[in-house]
Specification:
The protein has 177 residues and is α+β, with helices and mostly antiparallel strands. Helix content is 51%, strand content 15%. Pfam families: SMC_ScpB. It comes from Candidatus Faecalibacterium faecigallinarum.
Length: 177
Amino acid sequence: MEKTERMAVLEAVLFAHGDPVGTDKLAAALEWPEALVQEGLEALQARCMQPDSGLTLLRLGDHWQLATKNEYGAYVRRTLENRRAAPLSQAAMETLTVIAYNQPVSRAFIEQVRGVDSSSSVASLLEKGLIEEAGRLDLPGRPVSFRTTDHFLRVFGLSSLDGLPPIRTQEEKEGAS
């Protein structure tokens, strides 16, 4: 199979899949060596960067997702008649921040940091797909832990959690004043 055909296969699979998918899962499904899949994804990503393409291939950590380019978002939204999702409340943003910077975390940890009940914020973030359950912690009661999702990375324009802005310490804040 030629390189252009491999790119076409990857493009079709990513389009049909919709959600982010790992290189390893693509390799297993296509029965191709992982290196060949990686090479094809990188070539497809380069092709999508051309100005005559309305698509982009996003790298979200170790996952890949085909998406429309940001500059065409208004056209896509109007065509699909999607309503803009309600912005996150201050409480939800605080909860999301605690999770993003400290994941995986339990609800009790979130509430300890915020100082208030965070049940509704956690439920809202789960519903929006910005966080997900990450298993159970090895603590008394084996509480559920939470982490951010690939959807979180996409919404905030990050390729990985390394792209989160650094946290300023109290000393840095006082020094900047």
